[in-house]
Specification:
Elements lengths: L5 H11 L4 H8 L3 H8 L7 H10 L5 H6 L8 H10 L6 E5 L2 E5 L3 H37 L1
Antiparallel strand pairs: 1-2
């Protein structure tokens, strides 16, 4: 399994948050050139930069940021919120006889989108199970 470099994960994070490098650097309280060094130019960020990202981006998974392991966000709800505002570079939406289509630049883009879709499906399944349990409890109370 191919793991992207930390600057690629930073790019993914910036895009997922619906930001550009400039707005990301402002959120972190850094100069635009400093953030660009780590996001665009591939310089390895120091520990204080990583700590700043972790403390500034609510719910970010430090293990994902550092090692590329696990989900981008610790809390699935945060991940879904980020997806709703995120803009994935390279995607183009279109229609094909009424069906939505997406085009991606890379296989990694497809994998990330698939992972995101699977996470959304699991969250919805969990919510549906909770709904069913609530209905059963309410029905039991009505029978009493």
């Amino acid at each position: 399994m191919h793991q992207e470099a930390i600057n690629q994960r930073l790019k993914i994070l910036v895009e997922t948050l619906g930001m550009n490098v400039r707005s990301f650097s402002m959120k972190l309280g850094l100069s635009d050139s400093t953030a660009r060094n780590y996001v665009d130019r591939g310089s390895k960020p120091p520990a204080d930069f990583i700590a700043n990202v972790v403390s500034s981006i609510e719910g970010i998974n430090p293990k994902w940021l550092l090692l590329g392991e696990g989900d981008m966000f610790l809390n699935e709800t945060k991940s879904l919120q980020a997806q709703s505002v995120g803009k994935n570079k390279g995607q183009a939406m279109g229609t094909n006889n009424g069906h939505a289509t997406m085009n991606f630049n890379t296989v990694d883009d497809c994998r990330r989108e698939l992972t995101s879709a699977n996470n959304t499906i699991e969250l919805l399944r969990s919510q549906l199970q909770d709904k069913e349990r609530i209905i059963q409890l309410l029905e039991m109370q009505l029978k009493k």
